[in-house]
Amino acid sequence: MKTKRKTIRTVLSFLKGSLPLCVLSLLLALISVALTLYLPLLIGDAIDCIVGEGKVDFETILPLLQRGAVCILLTSAAEWGMAFINQRITYKTVASIRRKAFSGLQSLPLSYLDSHPTGDIVSRVIADADTFADGLLMGFTQFFTGALTIVGTLVFMFVIKPVIALVVVVLTPLSLFVSRFIAGKTYSMFRKQSEIRGRQTALIDEMIGGEKTVIAFSEKENVCRRFDEVNGELVSASLRATFFSSLTNPTTRFVNSLVYAAVGLTGALYAMAGGLTVGALSCFLSYANQYTKPFNEISGVITELQNALACAARLFDFMETASESPDPESPASLGTAKGAITLDDVSFSYVPERKLIEHLNLKVSPGDRIAIVGPTGCGKTTLINLLMRFYDPVSGTISVDGIPTRDLTREELRRNFGMVLQETWIRSGSIRDNIRMGKPDATDEEVEAAARAAHAHGFISRLPEGYATVVPEGGGTLSQGQRQLLCIARVMLTDPPMLILDEATSSIDTRTELRVQKAFETLMQGRTTFIVAHRLSTVREATNILVMRDGNIVEQGTHDALLAKNGFYSVLYNSQFEP
Amino acid sequence: MKHLFRFFPKYRKEFLLGPFFKLVEASFELCVPLVMRAIIDVGIAQSDKGYMIKMALLLVLLALLGLISSVTAQYFAAKASVGMVGGLKSELFSHLQSLSYRELDTFGTPTMITRMTSDCNQVQSGLNLALRLLLRSPFVVFGAMIMALTVDVNASMPFVIVIPILLAVTFAVMLVSIPMYRKVQGKVDGLVGDLRENLTGVRVLRAFRREKEEIKEFDRRNSGLKREQNRVGAISALLNPVTYVIINFAVLYLIWRGALRVDAGKLTQGDVVALYNYMGQILVELIKLANLIIQITKAIACANRIEKVFSVESSLSEPENAPEETAHGTVSFENVSFAYAGASDRSLSDITFSCEAGQTVGIIGGTGSGKTSLVSLIPRFYDVTEGKVKVNGSDVKDYPSGVLRRKFGVVPQQPTLFAGTIRENLLWGDENADEETLAEAINAAQAADIVRSKEKGLDEEVEQGGRNFSGGQKQRLTIARALVRRPEFLILDDSASALDFATDASLRKALRALPYRPTVFIVSQRTSSVRYADVIVVLDEGKAVGIGTHDELLVSCPVYREIHESQFRKEGKAV
Hints:
The structure holds two protein chains of two kinds. Chain A is α/β, with parallel strands linked by helices. In chain A, 64% of the residues lie in helices and 10% in strands. Chain A folds into two domains: 15-319, ABC transporter type 1, transmembrane domain (ABC transporter transmembrane region fold); 341-577, 3-Layer(aba) Sandwich (Rossmann fold), CATH 3.40.50.300. Chain A has helices spanning 2-15, 19-48, 58-105, 110-115, 118-160, 162-209, 211-216, 220-245, 248-272, 278-319, 380-387, 410-415, 431-435, 444-453, 457-462, 480-494, 510-524, 536-540, 559-565, 568-574; strands at residues 341-348, 357-364, 369-373, 395-400, 403-404, 417-420, 429-430, 470-471, 498-502, 528-532, 544-549, 552-557. In chain A, the strands form three sheets. A six-stranded mixed β-sheet of chain A has the order 6-9-10-3-11-12, with helices on both faces. Chain A has a four-stranded antiparallel β-sheet with strand order 2-1-4-5, with helices on one face. Chain B has 21 helices and twelve strands. Chain B has helices at 2-5, 12-46, 49-98, 101-107, 109-134, 136-151, 157-200, 202-207, 211-236, 239-263, 269-311, 371-377, 401-405, 422-426, 435-444, 448-453, 471-484, 501-512, 527-530, 550-556, 558-567; strands at 331-338, 348-355, 360-365, 386-391, 394-395, 408-411, 420-421, 461-462, 489-493, 519-524, 535-540, 543-548. Residues 570-575 of chain B have low confidence and may be disordered. The longest helix of chain B has 50 residues, at 49-98. Chains A and B meet through helix 2, helix 3, helix 4, helix 5 and helix 6 of A and helix 2, helix 3, helix 4, helix 5 and helix 7 of B.
């Protein structure tokens, strides 16, 4: 209940910006309800003029009907305006919630994103937001008018005949009680449905994403079985949620029919005694109908809102995830770094129970080329995570040009690094836009020059539309090597003072690599470079080789010095020539 | 919506009973104005209190019967819609799994995910509403009209005029808004794609400090969606007010006509009240119908998008029976050419080579030279454009795909692991594998130390996409997975790229020592990985420029020599 209230508060805070529109919507609702209620009154009066054969008062009926016509036109205009405004409010609110979720995403710590399935986050920001929008819209259109209609009807009824109004008031709580009871029950069901749906989306995301592997292993049946299991769970949860929530309508309608019967009976008894005209009775019956309709709607809206709130809660959960440690208030200025990097007693682990990097010390002078080698899983990638501040060290300090990186904004730090990752990432869009990623204002000539320098120009110009060729996310039919060349071209374009190359050349064939290395050679001139590499030809040119094992640097030195040492490095190196 | 309707027979009972009970409920509801008329014309006119109470009790009875039948109806509707969409999802998922690489390349992951998730949800709620209300509302509308006609034909003329107009208006709004809703869904797709990219590419995007631009781009799409939603909203918001105007003008007309008829002595006051009540019922139902139609329109748009996925069939033919296998362990390419769907250039042209059982084949060549395409043809992930690929002496097209692929252990370039445990991932190779087989595979794949380093060993959790393992660890685990099935053929597509030389060398040694002696295809860019292969195929821009052993190729193939020397330069010795 408490979390629900919190969710509602958050929703309201998002609505704040639309306050004038909300007021206007309320105003229009007021007008349309008042007029809607006035119409039966006019018609009741008209019916009273139709007493029997030869006793119809046409003189009075005509103006009544004219007034009715005006009333109808005004009502519908107000109604349309209200629906239109409500939609604007809803879509605006959801768009701003999505926007906030998305911009929050940009400052989420990598540790969160690394440990949460993509599909789950997508389902929250897209599907949950959609359901929430639907609920909110229904809430707006029907909740306001519904509540106003109830109040308005009661007022009109009390004015005409208090006793009959009293009958209605006595029976009303029954309806409220029923719908509240059902709504309370269904909230948890909807949450459960939403939770299972999240799991299902994660599975879908994973299996569709890894589809080619599924096919290669002919694992279709197993995968489908797993899907069907979750699907089965979802079906039974959905069935419960759907059925119970759809009970609201019939039960409130039943209560309403009771009200209708009671009004009909008491009204008729009064009419018999002469205390009420038939026109007034028909007006009352019409009110009883109108009065009960909002109950139907409101209870429908309440179930819908429960669902919407459950979805909003999941979305807000995500949005409230703690973001990265904020950038310093008054950040130090680095400008274009010279490229001296120091690691001072740095310790780091992803999970506290499992230590990874401990007390690491390292001094790198500007222009140094540092090669990091070692068996897989020895902490090479982790070092990159720390240098780029994707993760912060648990203790110790990393400094660039003597300035601790935590005193810099991440933006300032990253601007000084160029990075090519082992797992390439190409976004959907044109080749040109992909290269331009780090420097959006680069001219076409600059892009082409960077591509030439990265030896990517050749294959790009062979593509059907050259630089304008649009590739899907992940690179589509581009080969692994081509993707890597693109990633290198990106860095070429930004021309940063420090480079991080994570096995950048591992998938490029050595013929291309030779050329790329020449280009890098120029680029690396006077720039600090970290290369995580297995290729010894790359390593040979390094000023310093860090040999890593289990998170620690076990050997350090130049290629020749390390070989002469005949230690772990020489084992790694010589294994190349074994069959 | 063909596929949705295929589930109809399974839920025939629910489909008939749901709407049926709704109609029963509606019939009870239609009796209410008649009872009211009786109260006015008989009860009030004759001052019969007992009669009035009896009639009021009749109203209560009608309400109770209505409640029972509508609860029953809701149950059947929920069961049918949830069950059917559950079935649809399952079938859609399995259909997606049956597509070939070629179709997957064209669909793209985000599209397939929206089809499976939000589209299916929309269909479910639309279907549920349709079952509950689609028949009920028109039934009440026409029912009310017929009841009105029984009261008085002449005074009921407004009904006869108004109902066709209302239906026309409703359908017009529907016709205009359906394509608009489709456009909205397209925008949602774009938003999903954008969001996914930001999640999968988070490291690169942050490294390039793209955060602000990404927010701007998302904003652009987000407001595009908002605009589209507002547009379609403005149209669909018209439906209710227009309905309201038409109905109520009809009421005014009804009162006028009724007044004339009563004046002429053809009608009673109670009759007019009853007619007025019927008009009221029609209004309520039509407003429901309008909302319903909006929902259903959305659902139909989604159902059509789902249907489109179903309409794409796997491009690979599927023979019934396995062919006779004459030469076990052999693979041969006979003048094979291959082009990707939509590509103008061939990725492979006129490749011919063959290998014997137990041999190792090395495939080497530059970036984009067609290495991956070549090995993708052997387990028939794609069909050749020309020529023939034969496995065990028979054309791969003659094998049922399951039979063919079970012979292969494939290790793709991008190592993909799935959420679960290490063991579950390995069992993909062969679900009946025993501990011994698993251990053998793990050892050969040089993955023993990964398993050892994990607290729970084989039962260590693997997160989605194997995120909690490094690239090299993933590669070794995917190799182990391929070995678990003790395949006749093993394909390693540049699978050692993230491994250091020592591990790579031990891996190759272990593969050669496997007791079941698979035929091995190694795709690599390192000559050190393929130099001991029995046959090496050197590819250059899709053509085989050299086929032979390491020593032969060093002499005869300049491309091979160049690659080799680039890797061993400055050594002074070509080992």
